Request: fold
Amino acid sequence: MNILLFGLDLHANRIYLNYLSKQKPLKKLIVVDLKRDSEKIVKILNEYNFDYELLLFEQY
Reply:
């Protein structure tokens, strides 16, 4: 299963990532968010050991 997640805010971190961490098999998580939050996002995703890909955009 591949998942596309738009925005990794507090709700997504607390609810969706917790749920997804219990799902098998999760092949890849793709997160779409802003570049300014990239360090925070990487830190959170590394805690869950997901195979992930980031699609980051500049804020206009």
Remarks:
- Residues 2-57 form one domain.
- The helical segments are 10-20, 38-48.
- The chain has a mean pLDDT of 91.
